[in-house]
Write a structure and sequence with these properties.
- There is one protein chain.
- The chain is globular.
- It has two domains: 192 residues, P-loop containing nucleotide triphosphate hydrolases (Rossmann fold, 3-Layer(aba) Sandwich), CATH 3.40.50.300; 64 residues.
- β3 and β4 form a beta hairpin.
- The chain has twelve helices and seven strands.
- The protein has a seven-stranded mixed beta sheet, sandwiched between helices.
- Helices cover 45% and strands 16% of the residues.
- By secondary structure, the chain is α/β, with parallel strands linked by helices.
- The protein starts with 11 loop residues before the first helix and ends with a helix.
């Protein structure tokens, strides 16, 4: 997961597996993707310092509004890094993606249906176990993740030591320790976002390692049906699990064909990225 020292070291396969953000789906979710190269989602539990991270990355280049059809506030901003322009969307603070509230539904839909270039999950280093639940849920959807291990100054004040390199190995994605209030680690966070967005760093999804045999069989059977109905869909197993949990929003996306549109748009954007990339 260490970034290459120069462009020639980037694996060509990385670009092929590095899809551009889903422009049409993001626009449907209310995000204008003009004049930016990558879209970044900023997720996290409430009170993790997520807004401080957002403000530190964007400065005054931000504005607020509401999500389409929702009363939930959406904050957007931008920053430049590595000769690329990034739009960052601050998702509602939430403890879960299981969509029992409007905030959770907004956050989940953006990560799943919008397919941002990178999802930065801000976690509180002093409450790591509680915060990692959301991170693992997001990692079930996408491997294009950076963990922002925030409030490290508070962790040190409480005598807590966290091996962020070990955590990165265990999770399979970059983990960057930060203290956003003082600017600590923000330079490294920007580099990690850039590496994941451009394909220089490749993560891995989280798979549930222990589940009842009956649930595993049901998930696999339903996932196979989802894949037959929507060939090439990247999140079939996760979608199967949500259907088994009675998630009406996912069921609606299947009934309306929204999942099929997502897959087709993702394929088109992936082809455009491959044609535009010198490493593809």
């Amino acid at each position: 997961m260490q970034p290459p020292t120069d462009k020639e070291q980037i694996d060509p396969a990385a670009c092929e597996s590095c899809p551009m953000y889903n422009t049409a789906a993001l626009q449907k979710l209310g995000v204008d993707t003009q004049n930016c190269d990558f879209v970044v989602a900023l997720a996290g539990n409430p009170n993790t310092g997520k807004s401080t991270v957002f403000n530190a990355l964007t400065g005054l280049r931000q504005h607020t509004g509401n999500w389409p059809g929702k009363t939930v506030t959406r904050a957007e901003g931008g920053f430049d890094y590595g000769n690329k322009r990034y739009k960052i969307v601050d998702l509602p603070g939430t403890y879960s993606l299981l969509a029992t509230s409007t905030d959770e539904e907004v956050a989940r839909d953006f990560v799943l249906f919008g397919q941002p270039s990178v999802t930065v999950v801000v976690v509180d280093a002093t409450r790591l176990q509680r915060n990692l639940s959301l991170a693992l849920q997001i990692l079930e959807i996408t491997d294009r993740v950076v963990i922002c291990l925030n409030l490290m100054d508070e962790a040190r004040r409480h005598g807590l030591e966290i091996d962020h390199r070990r955590l990165a190995r265990d999770l399979g994605v970059p983990v960057v320790p930060t203290a956003a209030r003082s600017g600590e680690g923000l330079k490294e966070l920007l580099q990690a976002i850039h590496d994941v967005a451009t394909g220089a760093a490749i993560g891995k999804r989280y798979n549930v390692k222990s589940e009842p045999p009956a649930l595993k069989r049901a998930t696999e059977q339903l996932a196979a049906e989802v894949e037959r109905t929507f060939p090439g869909l990247p999140n079939a197993r996760w979608i199967a699990r949500r259907l088994l949990d009675g998630d009406e929003r996912i069921a609606e996306a299947i009934r309306t064909g929204e999942l099929g549109e997502l897959r087709l748009l993702s394929d088109l954007n992936g082809e455009e990225h491959a044609e535009a990339s010198p490493h593809a």
